[in-house]
Design brief:
The chain is mainly α. It has one domain (28-189). 85% of the residues lie in helices and 0% in strands. It has helices at residues 5-35, 37-51, 58-79, 86-108, 113-147, 152-183, 185-189. The longest helix has 35 residues, at 113-147. It is globular. The model has no long low-confidence stretch (mean pLDDT 93).
């Protein structure tokens, strides 16, 4: 399957845009938490409730992280079919929530800013681009359906194949990110 250079350029622009959108939303969430610590506390409490009890082993932690992120990636791919908008919403939401958590942790003073960054960066530099790749895969699929050549069924299948290959790349990166988050991040950050 050949992908032209113009499509690749657009794909990487979407990936970069999604990463920047996540980061921008993170900053908004961070400042929201600092300005509204009581609301941030409630959001963090609800998030902890939704996550449930911590896993009993590192392997179970890895599995939970990997499966959760893979489901988010899959949702991003399929949400790209919604006029290419879905991945942007997912990245904005996840970035905003991550920013709230960081802002709340900063506000409580439980961990230093350095510890907080060390708890996010080792795996985040892999995880966030991986999720952006999944989202961009959905946009690629959508663009092929609406702007590709050939019959509708052919465009759908061609776009789905491209999206599936990119999703597979995303899952491989998420696998590595989950390993780092489980086994490296706690040691580097001193948290956990």
């Amino acid at each position: 399957m050949r992908v032209n250079v113009e499509d690749r350029g657009l794909f990487w622009k979407v990936v970069g845009g999604l990463v920047l959108f996540f980061l921008g939303s993170s900053f908004l969430g961070y400042f929201y938490a600092l300005q509204n610590p009581e609301e941030a506390s409630e959001i963090v409490r609800r998030l902890a409730e939704a996550i449930g009890t911590p896993p009993t082993s590192d392997f179970h932690t890895f599995l939970r992280i990997f499966l959760n992120n893979t489901m988010v990636a899959l949702l991003s791919v399929f949400s790209g079919l919604l006029f290419g908008i879905g991945p942007w919403v997912i990245m904005a939401f996840n970035g905003f929530i991550a920013g709230i958590v960081v802002g709340f942790v900063t506000w409580t003073g439980r961990y230093s800013m350095l510890q907080t960054l060390l708890a996010l960066l080792p795996h985040g530099v892999i995880e966030i681009p991986a999720l952006a790749i999944a989202g961009a895969a959905g946009v690629v699929w959508y663009r092929e359906i609406v702007g590709g050549e050939g019959k509708a069924g052919e465009r759908f299948k061609r776009g789905m194949k491209r999206a599936a290959m990119l999703f597979f790349l995303s899952v491989l990166l998420l696998f590595v990110a989950a390993l780092v988050e489980t086994y490296v991040t706690p040691k580097v950050s001193g948290i956990g």
